[in-house]
Structure formats: structure tokens, C-alpha cells
Amino acid sequence: MKTSYFYFVLFLVTTAITFAQENTPIRYTAHNKGKFFISWGGNRESYSKSDVTFTGKDYRFTVADMRAHDKPKGWHIDYINPTKMTIPQTNLRLGYFFSDHYSVAIGVDHMKYVMTQNQTAKINGYYPNRGSYDELIPERPDEVVLTEKFLTYEHTDGLNYINTEVSRHDDISKLFKIGNTDKIQVNLTEGVGFGVLYPKTNTKLLGKERHDYFHVSGFGTSLKAGLNITFFKYFYIQGELKGGYINMHDIRTTMSTDDKASQDLPLFKGQKIAKKPDYKAKLDKVFSLYIRLKYSDANGYCKCISCNKIHFYKDIQNGHYMSRRYMSTRFDENNCRPQCVACNIFNQGNIQMYRIGLVNQIGEKTVNLVEVKARTSTNRYSDFEYKELIKYYTILVNKIKKDKGL
Ligand SMILES: [Zn+2]
């Protein structure tokens, strides 16, 4: 999972082990080597979409492109009260300059990650009692609604990234014509970090009892860039932008150790591995248009196969007699007819009436064959076949549109 976050550090104290001698004209802020620092601040995150896989004894499924957000508790006083550190999104860091320009630090970034509830997501896999969590979407067998009954998923206590960071620091005060850096100093900083993820994950899935303990779940790496303004030698405020990659392969989800989740994403947004074009969705679209045009009259009107109501071809859908989830009949013209939204979506396909309508058109025998074909054969299209079918139906669609003047 790629994360990017913004930090602000409310205060920082630096102390040098060896203090500069009284009589040296060199400013305290001219050198960093040997100084310690501690910082405390807050953060906001934005998360990229990520695929999350849930596995257990009787289920295994992946939610594709899960969306999530952070959970700030506002920008109030909690941020500077270390006893409340687990409440807001905070970061604590302790560091040491091993040279004037480089420091090493250990720290905890306490972030919060909350899956966006009730989003629609593609899902792949199996789980028991399908349909009993109000998660199914009629005629969209490869998608679910992530209802509370089905899945809640968050690392709110939190997504803790315990890491060590090496940073470079450069004094850029001169650019601002600052002479006395012991009064005010401006620094640029860049850093790279790595560490482990120690989240407390709150998940409820498929009605199972949830697991609420901290657990080492994976690792992370991060890069940062920041601007730091130091006041009176010892105090500073700092803003940082940080991006990272998190791989959590062992997330505890329920009280059973059989149950776990994994989450993982490429490093940077721009470099996310390009997804293959969704040929299936493309073919669905053009095939649907073809079916609706094929059965429409010269003015573009067609009848619902189940209830006979008449609609303009743009206001009706392509209804599948045998569900779309059967790939071998998904693009079978004998299995598809125009169908109104009411019948297709809200009346679960109005399947009895659909069958009667279909038998009237193509006969009992062919309908039986469609039923058998849907259930017994499996059809996986290659990219080549998809592309050819898309081409084929696009030509037909354009021809019908031209012929009927639509
Ligand atoms: Zn209808």
C-alpha cells in the first residue's frame, strides 16, 4: 500500500553532548555533529487503493482496489500531550547527528487507516453464506458492496510504522538572507526510512469475532522531504512530505489464527503497474448495445423480454437469462434480450417471465441448451478473442445505427 502523508512537528529540542567552547566565535547552529533531537507532531495521510486478500478455513477472497482514508481527530491540543499519543495521528522521533549533514533517527508514525464503508468493489474468491450480508449487487456477480455485515476493516489503533530513518540536512538560511542562524535557521531535509508495521487492526468479517491485539504485520519503506525552521538554536518546527510502501502479509483479523489478511502495493503512484485494459467490461458494453439495437424497431424502441413494456434502447438494459456470472453464455445472443431496469435489477431478472418470453422466440429446445451450456461449460476468453469480439460487435452496432438512423 502506498501512503503519502504530511507531518508537522510542533517542537523539537536539540542538545549537543559537547558544547562549543565559550570563546569560539562559531555559532552553535553552524555544526550539527553530536547533537540529539526529539520531535513530536501530527500527520495526515492519503492512501492509494490497494488489493486486500482475506483468508481463512472456509473462505478466501480478494477485494480489489479497496479505498481507505485516515481518521484525524482534529488539530487540537492532544497533539502536544504525549500521554494521549494513541489518540490522534502522531509521530514521535528521536535522533542523533552522526555528522553535520546526516542524522539517524528512530521513531513511530502512528497513522490511522479506515476502509471506506459501503463502497462497491470488485471481489474475487469464495466465502460461505454468500448473499447473507446484503453485499450482492444484482447482475454484477463480480462486485459486492462492502456492508458492515460483510466487512469492516481498519487499522485505527493504528497503522503503526516503527522505523529508522537516515536524513540529510542542509542549511539554506543564506537564501533568505538570514545572518544569525542561532536566532533563526532554515534547513532542508531529505530522508529514507524502513521499518516494521505493528498495527492494531479492527476487522469484522463474515460475522466472526474480531481480533484486537497489536501484531507485527509486515514491513514498510519510506522517503521524505521536509522544511525545517529552527528558532533560538534549540527549537524548531518542521513540515514533511513522506511517501512510502507498505507490505503487510500477515494481518490478524479474527480470534482464529487461521484467519488472516494481506495487503500490498507497488511503491509509487505513478509507477503502479499498468493494469490490462478491461476487455470484459468493454465487450459487455458493446455487446449490450448490440442486443438492445438488434431488438429495437426502426425508431429505436424495444420490448422488455419479461414484462413487455416498451422503452427507448438507451433506457433499457441487456438482460441475461442465465446470469452474467456464467461466462460461457455471457455473450451468447440466445441468452440476452433487452430487459427493463425494473425487471433486470429490482425483480432479480424476473426470470420465470424471461423464460416464457425466450421460449416464444427461440423454442424450448434452444432455451434448454442455453441452460445446459451456462452450467456445464466454462469459457475463458483470451485477450485476442475479446479484442476480436469487441471489433465484431462494434461493426454490427455501427451498421444497425446507420440502417435505423439512430
Ligand atoms: Zn420488464
Characterization of this structure:
This protein is 18% helix and 41% strand. It has six helices and 19 strands. Strand 6 (90-97) and strand 7 (102-115) form a beta hairpin. The chain is α+β, with helices and mostly antiparallel strands. The strands form three sheets. The chain has an eight-stranded antiparallel barrel. It folds into two domains: 6-264; 279-404, no CATH class. The model is unreliable at 7-11, 14-24, 74-86 and 265-275 (pLDDT under 50). The two termini are 46 Å apart. Bound molecules: zinc ion. Zinc ion binds at residues 304, 306-307, 309, 339-340, 342-343. Zinc ion (ZN) binds at residues 304, 306-307, 309, 339-340, 342-343.
Number of domains: 2
Q: How are the strands of the largest sheet arranged? A: 1-2-6-7-10-11-13-14
What class would the helix/strand composition place it in?
alpha+beta
Q: Count helical runs.
A: 6
Helix content: 10-25%
Largest sheet: 8 strands, antiparallel, barrel
Distance between the termini: 46 Å
List the ligand species.
Answer: zinc ion
Quaternary assembly:
single chain
Give the strand content. Answer: 35-45%
Query: How confident is the prediction overall: mean pLDDT?
Result: 79
Give the low-pLDDT segments: 7-11, 14-24, 74-86, 265-275
Number of strands: 19
Shape: elongated
Nearest-angstrom radius of gyration?
A: 30 Å
Order of helical and strand elements:
EEEEEEEEEEEEEEEHEEEHEHHHH
Summarize the structure.
The protein has 406 residues and is of the alpha+beta class.
Keywords:
406 residues; alpha+beta; 2 domains; two-stranded antiparallel ribbon; binds zinc ion
